[in-house]
Amino acid sequence: MSKRAVLEVIALDAEDAVAAQAGGADRLELVTDMAADGLTPSPGTFASIRAAVDIPLRVMLRLADGFSAGSAADLDRLVRTAGQLRESGAREFVLGFLGDDGGVDLRAVELLADALDGCSWTFHRALDHAADRDALRKQLDGVPGLDTYLTAGSAAGVDDGLPVLLAEADRRGEPGYAPQILVGGGLCLAHLPRLRARGLDAFHIGGAARPDGWTGPVSAAAVAEWRHAVDGT
């Protein structure tokens, strides 16, 4: 039997998490403040979600909108926060930082990867805003814990990025292309057949799981529709 595709859903709280798991989500990305495109939740929020569901949780490490790690003090704070989350039981994370030139902020990424001490983590859609995504992938090749890239293939979303996603899927095995591609960012059900046909097997949804928008909760029925579509294509 083939391994089923991964469906990851953004959750803001325990209510979201319970609904997402009931709908068939395999994993959750935990964030707060979607007005800033998703920031780090508190250890208390993580603990309440961990107590409510038993599927894997990936916790965002990001203190401000944008893709900068901020000042040295900001980065120190983020490292401390990562440590607090690990003490609360977090074992999977999401992060990604760029410098002013659009290249990866390797120092920030390596510092956090070191603090995570082997925990699995996703490099998020900072990849889609990088000046050179191929160079970024190669610079991060071999950084401990990196097993996933969350990407739409373009800063504008999957509609524009589909050719890039398909091309990168064909580069599996090359340096920098071993991590799993987690497709997200303007992802629609109509995109799934082409993505699945090319072997892409991980999908990330946020607003698509919320019929009432970000002011409303995750809908188990909406997640179940995606589960069925992902499994059926």
Task: List the defining traits of the structure above.
233 residues, alpha/beta, 8 helices, 37% helix
Segments where pLDDT lies below 50 for 5+ residues? none
Rg estimate, integer Å: 17 Å
Averaging pLDDT over every residue, what do you get?
A: 96
Strand order of the largest sheet: 7-6-5-4-3-2-1-8
Q: Measure the end-to-end span.
A: 15 Å
Number of helices: 8
Under CATH at level 1, the class stands as: Alpha Beta
Number of strands: 8
CATH superfamily: Copper homeostasis (CutC) domain
Order of helices and strands: EHEHEHEHEHEHEHEH
Q: Do you know the CATH topology?
A: TIM Barrel
| Overall geometric form | globular
The fraction of residues assigned to DSSP E strands is: 15-25%
> Can you summarize the main beta sheet?
8 strands, parallel
Count of separate structural domains: 1
CATH architectural designation = Alpha-Beta Barrel
Helix content: 25-40%
Pairing-aware structural class of the strands and helices?
alpha/beta
